[in-house]
From TrEMBL:
The entry's keywords: Membrane, Transmembrane, Transmembrane helix
Keyword Membrane tagged: yes
Membrane-crossing residue ranges in chain numbering: 12-34
Protein name per Swiss-Prot or TrEMBL: Uncharacterized protein
Length: 45
């Protein structure tokens, strides 16, 4: 009984990959904003 991944799963993977890369690529507060957004997205899951 294997269900397909929920639509949020690809975004979770994307965030897990994008947050560290974004933090290294942009030494600016933008990574902090992205991290906060990641927190808001992770709450409902």
């Amino acid at each position: 009984m294997s269900l397909p991944l929920p639509p949020i799963a690809p975004y979770c993977v994307l965030w897990i990959v994008a947050i560290p890369i974004g933090a290294m690529a942009t030494p600016q507060p933008l990574w902090l904003v992205a991290n906060v957004m990641n927190g808001f997205i992770a709450v409902p899951t």
